[in-house]
Design a protein that fits this description.
The model has no long low-confidence stretch (mean pLDDT about 90). This protein has three helices and no strands. Helix 1 packs across helix 3. It has one domain. With about 60 residues, it is mostly helical.
């Protein structure tokens, strides 16, 4: 992910976590929200893509036509 995109996404994520309703929604689906640095955010996104990519492959999910 290009650095400017990463920083912009992180900036918006940190801003969203200032909203108590957003924090509650994230906790309700199993996430413990915490503001991060852009580098920590990048690492989190990479881990999530890897994890859910494996789930998608294992489930045999294919793009809709």
């Amino acid at each position: 992910m290009p650095d400017p995109v990463l920083r912009k996404l992180n900036q918006h994520a940190v801003q969203a976590l200032k909203n108590p309703a957003m924090v509650t929604r994230l906790r309700n689906v199993g996430y413990e929200p915490a503001p991060t640095t852009p580098e920590e955010f990048r690492d989190f996104i990479r881990a999530e893509l890897k994890k859910f990519g494996q789930v998608i492959v294992a489930a045999g999910v294919k793009p809709a036509q």
